[in-house]
């Protein structure tokens, strides 16, 4: 792995237009569970699979049960950025990373210091009353009993993209522009099975495609560099002057 890490280090150091596209595997090292791993969100505690519970229809029809799952499994507010988040923020500050495009909703990239973060699936840190649009933070949602409600009485909804909901078009278009103009695209911590987000990779026209993931992905065969390891471990080994 050392040779591959050295190659990646060289590519990042030589570029001022690296774009990172990441998924759940970036945050599992911070203690946030994903859906599909052995240690993920599947268990016998709930009567429905996670994809059903965090769907638009379920939120509308079974709001209290939605929030029981959401507050317990998806609001991990004590999580801290790991070396993947930290390194990306450092490389952005030093002029190498142009943007971070993430499928995660935890806000850890911003906490680490990254500025150009495109959140394809929204953020747990933004919550709005469906009636008056008043803003509430994640701490308010976590502390609420039952269904979180606004001071006006309206039901508060997290600003996250639920199953059956479309992605924000402005964020999609901006992500496409970043990917299409990147010299180096690093895909990290994602199985690339969630669409339409995973389809954004098709817009890459640069010279170096990198995949860092513990398991194989559909893009491995097209990548110029594949590293089968922890993304935090890989990034920690890379030092850019």
UniProtKB/TrEMBL annotation:
Q: What is this protein's function per UniProt?
A: NAD-dependent protein deacetylase which modulates the activities of several enzymes which are inactive in their acetylated form.
For this protein, the Enzyme Commission number is 2.3.1.286
NCBIfam families for the chain: PRK00481.1-1, PRK00481.1-3
Q: Which InterPro entries match?
A: DHS-like_NAD/FAD-binding_dom, NAD-dep_sirtuin_deacylases, Sirtuin, Sirtuin_cat_small_dom_sf, Sirtuin_class_U, Ssirtuin_cat_dom
Q: Which family does it belong to?
A: Belongs to the sirtuin family. Class U subfamily.
Q: List cofactor names only.
A: Zn(2+)
What this protein is called in its record is NAD-dependent protein deacetylase
Q: Give the catalytic activity.
A: N(6)-acetyl-L-lysyl-[protein] + NAD(+) + H2O = 2''-O-acetyl-ADP-D-ribose + nicotinamide + L-lysyl-[protein]
Tell me which UniProt keywords the record has, alphabetically.
Cytoplasm, Metal-binding, NAD, Transferase, Zinc
């Amino acid at each position: 792995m050392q040779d591959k890490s050295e190659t990646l280090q060289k590519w990042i150091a030589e570029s001022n237009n690296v774009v990172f596209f990441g998924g759940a595997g970036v945050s599992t090292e911070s203690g946030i569970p994903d859906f599909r791993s052995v240690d993920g969100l599947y268990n016998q505690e709930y009567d429905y699979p996670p994809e059903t519970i965090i769907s638009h229809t379920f939120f509308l029809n079974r709001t209290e049960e939605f929030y029981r799952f959401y507050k317990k499994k998806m609001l991990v507010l004590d999580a801290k950025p790991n070396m993947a988040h930290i390194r990306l923020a450092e490389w952005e500050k030093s002029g190498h990373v142009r943007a971070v495009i993430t499928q995660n909703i935890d806000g850890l990239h911003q906490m680490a210091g990254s500025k150009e973060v495109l959140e394809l699936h929204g953020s747990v840190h933004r919550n709005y009353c469906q009636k008056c649009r008043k803003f509430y933070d994640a701490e308010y949602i976590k502390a609420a009993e039952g269904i979180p409600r606004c001071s006006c009485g309206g039901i508060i909804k997290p600003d996250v993209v639920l199953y059956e909901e479309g992605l924000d078009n402005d964020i999609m278009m901006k992500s496409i522009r970043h990917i299409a103009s990147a010299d180096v695209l690093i895909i990290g911590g994602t199985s690339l099975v969630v669409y339409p987000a995973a389809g954004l990779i098709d817009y890459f026209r640069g010279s170096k495609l990198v995949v860092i993931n513990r398991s194989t992905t559909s893009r491995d065969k097209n990548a110029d560099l594949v590293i089968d390891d922890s993304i935090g471990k890989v990034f920690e080994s890379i030092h850019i002057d």
